[in-house]
Amino acid sequence: MATPDKTRPDAAAIEPGPDRRRRFVWVSLAVFVVLAVLHTWPLASAPGTLSRNDNLDTVLHEWTLAWLAHQIVRDPLHLFDANIFYPDRLTLAYSDHLFIPGIVVAPLIWAGVSPVLAYNLLLMAGFASTGWVMSLVIHRWTSSRMAGLISGSLVAFNSFTLTRFPQIQDQHVEFLPLALWALDRLMRVPSVRHALSLSGWFVLQALTSGYWLLFTTVAMVAGAAARPREWMVRTRRSFVPYAALAGVVAGVAMLPFLVPYWTVSREQGLTRSLEEVSLYSAHITNYLATGGRLHFDAWSHTFYGYGGDSLFPGVLALSLAAVAIGSGVAFRDVRARMAVAFGVAAFALSFGPAFPGYAVLYEVFPLMTGIRGASRFGQLWLVAIAILAGFGWLKLRHAFVRATMPAARKVVLPLGAAILVGVHAEALRAPISYTEYPGIPAAWDELRSTGDSAVLAFFPFYPPESVFLNARYMLYSTRSFKPMLNGYSGFTPQSYRRHVEAMLEFPNRASIDYLREVGVSHIIVEGHLMSDIRLGLIERSPALQLTFTDGDIRIYVLRQ
Prior knowledge:
This protein is mainly alpha-helical. It folds into two domains: 18-427, no CATH class; 442-558, no CATH class. Helices cover 56% and strands 4% of the residues. The chain has helices at residues 18-40, 56-74, 99-110, 115-142, 145-156, 175-188, 192-206, 210-225, 228-232, 239-268, 274-279, 293-304, 315-326, 329-332, 334-349, 358-364, 377-401, 406-410, 412-427, 471-477, 494-502, 509-518, 532-540, and strands at 50-51, 435-436, 456-459, 522-526, 544-549, 553-558. The strands form two sheets. The protein has a four-stranded mixed beta sheet with strand order 3-4-6-5. A two-stranded antiparallel ribbon has the order 1-2. A hairpin with a 3-residue loop joins β5 (544-549) and β6. The longest helix is centred in the middle third of the chain and has 30 residues, at 239-268. The N and C termini lie far apart (81 Å).
C-alpha cells in the first residue's frame, strides 16, 4: 500500500496499484476511441470519402500534412521551403507547420493513403488521444478513474474542439497534460531527468502548432507561478536551475522551427497588429456559445450566432469546477491550483487588446505578435475547467463516501456514470454534416511528367480576396509537389499580389513575359472555370503549347 500524498488533502487514501493502473490505461483508451467515433460520426463509416473539404482550411491542412511527409524524407533541411507562392522561400511558415501531427500520419501517406483519409484518421486520433492522456494524468493525480474519464472527456470533446474540425491542430492537445504532469514532478523533485521530461513534453505540444507553443508556455509559467513555495524556497535542489535547464533544452530543440517564422516576420512583415487581433478576440458571448445540440437548440443559438469561437464548457463542467473552487480543493491541491492559474490567465488573454495587460505582453513577448485569434486562448481555459472538474468530482465523491447513510455511498458510481454521460450529452453534435470527397482527378497525375525543373501557374489565377480558392490547386499538387505561383495560407505575400496584377490580361504579351521572367514553365487551365473568350485567347496564343487535355483540364508548356 502506497503512502498517501500529504500535499493532497482531498486525494484518495489509497493509491491505485500497478495492476489497476494498467487496466485503466487500456480500458480508458478503448473508451476514448469509441467516444471519438461517436462524436465524429458518421466519419468512421467512410473516412476515405467523407470530408470537411467544404472548408478550405481543411484542404490547407491536408496539403500541409502531405507536404511534410513528402519533404521530410527528401530534403528535411528545406522543410519550410514549400511548393506554394513561388518564388518565395519559407512559405510553410505562412501558417502552422503541423509538424508533430504530420509525423504521426507520414507513414500512412508514404503507404499511399490519400491526404483526406490521413486527415480524417488524424482527426479521430486527436480526439481519442487527448481525452485518453488527460484521463491518465488526472487518474494519477486523484486516484479516481471517474475523475480521469470526466476530465479527459471535457478536454477532448467540448464546444471548441467539436466546432473546429477544419483546424486539425485544435484536436491535438495530448501532450499538454503530460507537460503539466512533468512540471509537477519537477517542482516536487527537481532533477535533470525531470527537467528533460518537461522539455520533451513541452516541445511535442509546442510543435503541434504555433498557437500551442504560446498556450503551453502560458500554462507552464502560470502553473509554476501558482506554486511559489516550491520555487522560492532554497533547498539542496532548487527548482529554478532545473527549470532553466528545461527551458534551454526546449529552446534549442525548437530553434529550427522558430527561425523560419522569425525570418518571415522580418522579411515579409508577417506579424499581427493589435487592431487585427481585436477582430479575432473573444467577447463574453463566446463563453455562452456552443454547437452542442442540447444547449444550441434550447438557448445557445442566440450567442452562437454572434460568430467567433464557441467556449461554453457545459453546465456539468462548470458545476464540478465550482465544487472544486468552493470547497477549497482548487487552492489546497497544488495541481488544481496550477489549473486555476493558467485558466484565469487564458480567460483574460482571450479578450485580446480589450484586456489591459495584452498590449504590454504583445510588446515584450515576441510569440504574441504572431497570434491573430486571441479568442483561441479560450481553449486553454477549457482545459483548466476540465482539470478542475476532475477535482470537483473527487470532492463530491468523498462527500458521498463519508456520508453516514449507507445508501448515499451506493449512489457514487451511478452518479459518476450519469455525470459522464451528461458531459457527452451536452457536447454532442453528431451526426456531423460532411461533404463527399471524390478524390483527385486522374488528369492531375500528368503533373508528374512536367519535369524536375517545372514551375507551374494555375488558372483561374484568383485575386487576393479569393486566395483561399487556390487551396484545391494545392491538394492537386500533392501528386507531384512541383513549385507553383499559386497558394493559400494564413498570410498572402506581396509576391502573390504582384502575380495577380501581372495576370489580369493573361495571355497578353506582358503577362507571358512576366511568367517567363519569374520562371514559370507550365500553365494549367481549368476550362470550365474560364470564359469562352479567355479560353479562345489561350488556345490561339503562340507562346503556349498544349501537351495534355482531358476536355477540361489543359496543360500548356510556356515556350521560351
